[in-house]
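batch job 7 of whatever, protein = GTPase Era
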Amino acid sequence: MKVGFVNIFGKPNAGKSTLMNALLGEKLAIVSSKVQTTRHRIKGILTTSDYQLVFSDTPGIIDPKYKLQEKMMASVKSALEDADVALLLVDVKDSWQENEDLFTSLRLKVPAMVVLNKLDLVDTAKLEEAKTFFEGKPYCKKVVTISALSGVNKKTFINHILEFVPVGEPFFEEDQLTDLSTRFFVAELVREKIFDLFSEEIPYHTTVVVTAFEQKQSLIKISADIIVQRETQKGILLGTKGEMIKKLGTLARVDIEKFVDSKVFLELFVKVRPKWRDSDLFLKEYGYN
Ligand code: GDP
Ligand code: K
Ligand code: MG
């Protein structure tokens, strides 16, 4: 069978997480309209009788300004090192030249496919122009166009990828979907709702850790801490009479129940940890290794 690591790179908001979810047919990676939603390298494994493709969604590439962002970029670097093929995702409405500069700076050692995403937002002429722009760039073996949001023709897309993937032995069991824990994904779903509900700075000062996960008869009881940097942020997350945290809990619970396929009781606590984003100790404790 064909076996390969297919790692997805690109600028923030190109649609990397949306694409991975579309390919896996499962919502593994959280998605939002805000940049820097994804903070970890997240593997999604797709196995059939013909192939095993290990996709990696990665954080959007930026210049790190604090330690958390440095960890995020380290996870991108690790993905650069073990890819068999790189998918370079471009929001076709974004500056093509900026993407070109970024891809050149990656100094890729593996074949890359440029994936022009969000074709639903431009006309055919523009799309053709973009295709021409990227074709022939030294790192680019192929250009494909998709809309990760409106639906990807999975078979066609996978066939393009398989051209670059070697024959080998599978790394994972055929029913394994990811290498990360259920607790991780539960925390991510809470984080996603924080991106949805709160504007500007709050999501960037926040992380979520699951502290308890217990099966109780037909129910899973989950506790999670929401970590913020300042008391004022805690106040915003709680809201007047706790109305915001209640709303957050309700929204997150619906998605968590879908993910774990069980009824869930979710308890959220907000904790203040000054400067956690710049503390090696806290970053480690919160799973940013
Ligand atoms: P990432 O930061 O690269 O992981 O991007 P996300 O997957 O989080 O997507 C960023 C935003 O772009 C979200 O609001 C998505 O719904 C949106 N998006 C992703 N793919 C498409 C697409 O094909 N068309 C349109 N119109 N929007 C998209
Ligand atoms: K995003
Ligand atoms: Mg993402």
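notes: The first helix runs from residue 16 to 24.
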